[in-house]
Inverse folding.
């Protein structure tokens, strides 16, 4: 029975705005976060070089780190690539360029810069090009540059945002999908239609919970894959995501059982989501007192995911936290059952404080 | 009652202080169509919800197909069909998908929905999404859904409410077919013509209580005026003669009326179910 209801819900998935949104969300969030905080479009500056005279600059450029260098044979082709935005800048080294530089003749250097390239990339490539030429010349640099790293030596902000992306994806799919699906069944009274067949309410609840769990696992995995953050322990990460997905689906079932309509569901989500999301704030801002994050149930699967994917932790390292997350899942079960019984009571009219909706006596 | 499909005794239910169903008792035999006739708010739908296990009675007992409800709910529901008043089908699914899903809930394997959809004139739109259906089409789909498991007892809540005459006719024919194959049919309606046409027996419900239960004919005979009205025209003058059939010389009066001129119409003057309901309840069915 559970399988049949689950298959029905899954088959309705492509026609359900909530399920579609849950599946699209990881992609949208990843793009949005990377656009704002950097990462997705932060490709290395791309420099194209046409060497017409076997210049030493070409050899030096090939050794550059952090810059993507492409060698072409034709200056026209290089110009076209820069114009089309395939390269950020292009450098044409004429025949005898090195000799002219060494002789102090100050030859002309053609340096094309793409109009669509990032300003930061233009600056990097401009400085790099000059540095390449200078190091080839016999003239010493007038200054000795000392590079001193300053500021927080921890992870980049874009990396620290990962738990936020994961919780948004897992929570939307895990909480909102089963809740919205259950509420839709209630308000459209298709739930009543099911409950006059041999299907029982517990079958419906378990099927909705599985729907949320499966989608939450899927969106969690998608998020990590999109961010290249699956780490070196994929099985352990999958385990952590599964525990988190179950926890979110349980909360979704409670929300769906309790809320009479989607407006109430969204209002409750707006008010209560912070209780699920707040632990990620402590990953984003690691200087905050970390013990507060441990008060949130989602911490116990988010932190393992973060440690496994970013900090190189092993399953053994995160096992205690995952065990706590599993205990939370088990502890939530009787609460979910209580919400389910309450829903059944309302459906069969035991809760008589109000007349059941849609009843035409 | 022999071949009893439904036996209800002392059924009551209240919404807070409002007594929706009050000490209701009813017997329905297999193959019988019983119409619960009453105005909106009379307690018909609440009664159906209790009989189908959607609502737990405050008191009273329900026995369906030999099993107590709600204790043997699953066993009963496997042999029961319910057509709701609300159009609660899955809009995002097609008629075929809707029926296949519900057939799967009844454990029916390799279910072919097309014959059923043909019977409700939906075979031509079988693969269209239900969201594109008219109200009548949805209602017919709901009726088809209630017949998936070839139920031994069928509950129909306002099955033709608001439908066009063609859709209503299709549904009524199908209901008669179900009774003919031996299913007990309990339908609620506030349409006296529907109740009259379909029901073997009619139960008048008002304020949660059954006021009377009998065949439509017996009710009409018991409460109506047994008379014949003859309208005729003679030299351009229309005359109307009412002949009470219980008069000792009714036959002679009728013969005179028939020879009074060119007969325009002859009507029996029996009471309608609405007249009888008003007599019992002191209010109309549409109140």
């Amino acid at each position: 029975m559970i399988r049949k209801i689950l298959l029905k819900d899954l088959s309705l998935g492509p026609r359900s705005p909530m399920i579609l949104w849950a599946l699209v969300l990881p992609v949208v969030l990843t793009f949005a976060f990377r656009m704002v905080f950097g990462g997705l479009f932060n490709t290395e500056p791309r420099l194209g070089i046409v060497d017409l005279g076997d210049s030493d600059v070409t050899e030096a450029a090939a050794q550059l780190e952090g810059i993507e260098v492409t060698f072409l044979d034709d200056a026209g082709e290089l110009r076209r690539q820069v114009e089309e935005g395939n390269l950020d800048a292009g450098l044409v080294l004429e025949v005898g360029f090195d000799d002219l530089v060494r002789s102090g003749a100050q030859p002309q250097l053609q340096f094309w810069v793409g109009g669509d390239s990032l300003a930061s990339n233009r600056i990097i490539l401009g400085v790099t090009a000059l540095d390449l030429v200078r190091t080839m010349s016999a003239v010493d640099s007038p200054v000795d540059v000392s590079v001193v790293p300053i500021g927080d030596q921890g992870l980049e902000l874009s990396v620290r945002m990962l738990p936020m992306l994961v919780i948004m994806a897992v929570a939307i799919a895990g909480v909102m999908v089963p809740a919205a699906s259950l509420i839709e069944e209630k308000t459209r009274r298709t739930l009543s239609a099911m409950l006059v067949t041999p299907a029982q309410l517990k079958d419906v609840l378990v099927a909705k919970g599985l729907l949320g769990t499966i989608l939450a696992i899927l969106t969690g995995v998608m998020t990590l894959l999109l961010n290249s953050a699956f780490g070196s322990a994929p099985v352990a990460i999958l385990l952590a995501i599964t525990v988190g997905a179950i926890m979110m689906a349980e909360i979704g079932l409670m929300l769906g059982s309790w809320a009479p309509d989607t407006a109430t569901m969204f209002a409750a989500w707006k008010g209560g989501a912070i209780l699920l999301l707040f632990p990620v704030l402590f990953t984003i801002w690691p200087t905050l007192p970390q013990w507060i994050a441990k008060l949130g149930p989602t911490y116990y699967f988010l932190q393992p995911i973060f440690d496994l994917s970013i900090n190189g932790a092993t399953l053994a390292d995160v096992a205690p936290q995952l065990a706590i997350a599993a205990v939370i899942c088990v502890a939530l079960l009787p609460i979910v059952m209580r919400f389910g019984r309450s829903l059944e009571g309302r459906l069969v009219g035991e809760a008589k404080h109000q007349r059941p909706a849609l009843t035409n006596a | 009652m022999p071949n009893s499909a439904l036996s209800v005794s002392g059924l009551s239910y209240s919404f807070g202080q409002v007594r929706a169903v009050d000490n209701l008792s009813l017997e329905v035999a297999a193959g019988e169509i019983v119409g619960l006739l009453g105005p909106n708010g009379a307690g018909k739908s609440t009664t159906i919800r209790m009989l189908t296990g959607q609502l737990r009675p405050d008191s009273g007992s329900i026995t369906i197909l030999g099993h107590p409800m709600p204790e043997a709910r699953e066993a009963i529901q496997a042999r029961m069909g319910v057509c709701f008043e609300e159009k609660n089908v899955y809009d995002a699914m097609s008629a075929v998908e809707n029926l296949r899903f519900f057939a799967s809930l009844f454990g029916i394997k390799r279910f072919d929905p097309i014959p059923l959809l043909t019977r409700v004139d939906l075979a031509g739109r079988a693969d269209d999404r239900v969201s594109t259906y008219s109200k009548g089409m949805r209602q017919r789909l709901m009726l088809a859904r209630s017949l998936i498991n070839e139920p031994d007892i069928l509950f129909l809540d306002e099955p033709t409410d608001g439908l066009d005459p063609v859709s209503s006719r299709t549904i009524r024919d199908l209901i008669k077919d179900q009774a003919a194959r031996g299913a007990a049919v309990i339908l609620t309606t506030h349409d006296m013509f529907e109740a009259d046409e379909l029901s073997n027996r009619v139960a008048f419900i008002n304020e949660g209580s059954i006021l009377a239960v009998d065949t439509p004919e017996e009710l009409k005979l018991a409460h109506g005026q047994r008379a014949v009205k003859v309208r005729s025209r003679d030299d351009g003058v229309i005359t109307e003669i009412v002949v009470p059939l219980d008069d000792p010389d009714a036959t002679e009066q009728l013969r005179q009326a028939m020879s009074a001129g060119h007969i325009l119409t002859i009507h029996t003057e029996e009471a309608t179910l609405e007249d009888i309901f008003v007599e019992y309840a002191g209010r109309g069915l549409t109140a």
In short: Chain B has two domains: 4-221, 225-269.
